[in-house]
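Technical note accompanying the year-one report. For the benefit of new consortium partners, we illustrate the data format agreed upon in the data management plan: each record pairs a sequence with a structure-token string. No post-processing was applied to the example shown here.
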Amino acid sequence: RAKPASPSPRPAAARCSGCTSVMARSVPTPTRWAATSPPSAGPAVIVPPTWIGENNSTAIEASIAYPGRFRTMGRFDPERPDYLDALSTWRTQPDMLGIRMTFRVPPYDQWLVSDQIDHFWGACERFGIPVMCLVPGEAEKLEPIAQRLPDLSLIVDHMACDLAAKGDAAFANN
């Protein structure tokens, strides 16, 4: 059986704003995971790192190169002008499960307490797109969204724990 073509390389560390080349090299590549894990392990879910922006190409290429081995929670810019068109076909991308949003730093942390991306939440509900949210120590900020949009699937990443704390302190604000 022929080995599938390798997906194109991940973005170089030089394109990674604020990270080191050591950090960029230490992230396991989909090719390495596919080569070293048994098929019985089932598909791995790829969540592209925040520092690459809304680029899901490596994850999609991995799904194509290694059928059945990967699924993706992709990155998305809710302020892009063509957001509605992009969301209407989001789940047609190879093995795309949903969207992963990060609300840790400005201006993104304000998106949960304003109506700035309400259009995004509503469209995700309408198109059946689950949204994985990183809200460290601030799970309560998702409550109004969940109440307004009862059919929207929200995934609370890292159980909304404070990523800088350990043990019980990590969950003190939840």
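Partners are asked to follow this layout when depositing records. The chain has a mean pLDDT of 82.
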